[in-house]
UniProtKB/TrEMBL annotation:
Residues 26-219 form the FIST domain. The keyword Lyase does not apply. Residues 220-358 form the FIST C-domain domain. Transmembrane segments: none annotated. GO terms for molecular function: kinase activity. This is Histidine kinase. Keywords: Kinase, Transferase. It comes from Flavobacterium supellecticarium. The keyword Glycoprotein does not apply.
């Protein structure tokens, strides 16, 4: 496996890391994560197609691009890879063609050949797609041995339109899957948040998918505002500082749910993932050092699985973490890069949601506010 890393801006590559002299015309997979206005521009795809004529080209809009130890904005970070024995298959669906994200997720996996499938990397629209339902649909039909990771496209901090494309101009509402096949493919993954829970465990008593009306039979928004105290005046922006932890049914594992919006008239809160009735939740708060430590621990989870650093590390972190960490944001990327070492090519983006298992190679879950890592390599 060979991987090169490039940065695209103003119609050209502005920086290139190509330690193994990868021949661009032989690249099999190109993944680009970047500013929405650049990703959707036809000339961006046309340029990449000219540079990498034989590759599957996947583009995804972001809320910030990861290039080695740097977090950039207004660029496209591009990884180009060739494999010795690993093969790939791709699929794409449009959310508007289905009655729900659950059905879209099922269809996406069912369009992949199953024999020899090891990993499905999913990049989804981040505005129109319910990430929780997408994950449930994919888990419903995937074989037990298949790892699914990925994330939802971003749109800086605007939360308007996101774009994903496969071998063509990116569009809103698309969901792309890349399937990886081969016995010599070496995979690893990790996903951690680093948030601190506080207060009592509570129960969601009235909700509809990702809209919450009542917690402990009390109005959810009133309860939340009471907990925020002085930060309540800064809603909805301050909600990023205080997500909820959700304990998964039948498990002690938790995932994080971020508030997308509040409705002061209906007195509801809309989250970036589902909070079903009966779910156990706790309020959470940010601790900068723990957020950064969690990124390092996510890399440690990868190393525990393979006992070796990956050739390519795909980092998908949450826009909420980027906003909260501010000028310290590169510290979480640096923590991952330092765990893996100089031999690992680090790429990725800031997203509207992350997809990864909680336990090694188990069913995937939908996360908010985590650092999620997928590691790829090939045995010689």
């Amino acid at each position: 496996m060979k991987t090169a890393l490039l940065c695209y801006q103003d119609g050209a590559f502005t920086s290139i890391r190509n330690d193994e002299a990868l021949v661009f015309s032989e690249a099999q997979l190109v993944m680009g994560f970047g500013a929405p206005e650049l990703v959707r521009a036809p000339e961006s795809y046309d340029f990449l197609k000219q540079q990498f004529p034989a590759a599957n080209i996947v583009l995804c809009s972001s809320s910030g691009e990861i290039y080695e130890k740097e977090v950039r904005d207004g660029t496209i970070t591009i990884s180009a890879s060739t494999f010795v024995s690993t093969t790939m298959a791709t699929a794409m669906v449009a959310i508007d063609d289905f009655t729900s994200a659950y059905e879209a997720g099922k269809a996406l996996i069912q369009r992949m050949p199953i024999a020899g499938l090891r990993l499905v990397l999913v990049l989804s629209d981040g505005g129109k797609v319910n990430g929780s339902e997408l994950v449930k649909g994919m888990n419903a039909v995937k074989p037990d041995h298949v790892l699914i990771t990925g994330g939802l496209a971003g749109d800086a901090d605007r939360f308007e339109k996101t774009y994903v494309g496969l071998n063509g101009y990116p569009e809103s509402g698309k969901i792309v899957a890349i399937g990886f096949y081969g016995e010599k493919l070496v995979l690893s993954h990790g996903s951690l948040g680093g948030w601190e829970a506080f207060g009592l465990e509570r129960t969601v008593t009235r909700s509809e998918q990702n809209i919450v009306y009542e917690i402990d039979h009390k109005n959810a928004l009133d309860l939340y505002i009471n907990y925020l105290g002085e930060y309540a005046a800064e809603l909805p922006g301050s909600a990023l500082l205080f997500p909820l932890s959700l304990t998964l049914e039948g498990s002690d594992e938790t995932v994080v749910r971020t508030i997308l919006s509040i409705d002061n008239v209906a007195k509801t809160m809309t989250f970036a993932g589902d909070l079903p009735e009966g779910a156990k939740v706790k309020f959470m708060k940010a601790n900068f050092d723990k957020l950064i430590d969690a990124a390092s621990d996510a890399a440690g989870s990868c190393l525990t699985i393979t006992q070796a650093s990956p050739k390519l590390a795909l980092l998908i972190s949450c826009v909420g973490r980027k906003i909260i960490l501010g000028n310290r944001i590169e510290e979480e990327v640096e923590a991952v890069a330092e765990m893996f070492g100089a031999q690992t090519v680090v790429t990725g983006f800031y997203s509207y949601g992350e997809i990864s298992p909680l336990q090694p190679f188990s069913n995937c879950e939908f996360h908010n506010q985590t650092m999620t890592i997928t590691g790829l390599n090939e045995m010689e």
